[in-house]
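ok trying again, last paste got cut off:
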Amino acid sequence: MSDHSHTPLPDDPDWMETLDDYANDQLSDLEMDTSCDQIHPIIANWYRETLEQAPPPASSAVWQAVACLTTEIIQGMQEDEELAGVMDEESIAPLALWIEDIITLGRAFEIALRTGRLDDL
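nice, full thing came through this time. structure:
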């Protein structure tokens, strides 16, 4: 693991850049360039196609579970000392929608894997 002397803080205007640099460092440490180069275009294409479609069908209970999970994630973020500083009342609603979108996208990804849509991986 790389040594990072700069920890991103909520009041640091470049905190996202720091996180991006950290992620890139970690990925480059894995030396997965060749396999990532092969898989990434397939995933990128699936991602673009998925965003253009309606979410996967689900029962009302599944949608309620997604909303409940989103609430739990938001509450956990508010309890986290580092994240609480970047969250205010105005940012919670858009953040919750974004988290719901990510969960729904993850569900679509799992379905695509399970049904063979991404068997080319």
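cool. Residues 43 and 76 are 29 Å apart (CA to CA). Confidence is low (pLDDT under 50) at residues 1-10.
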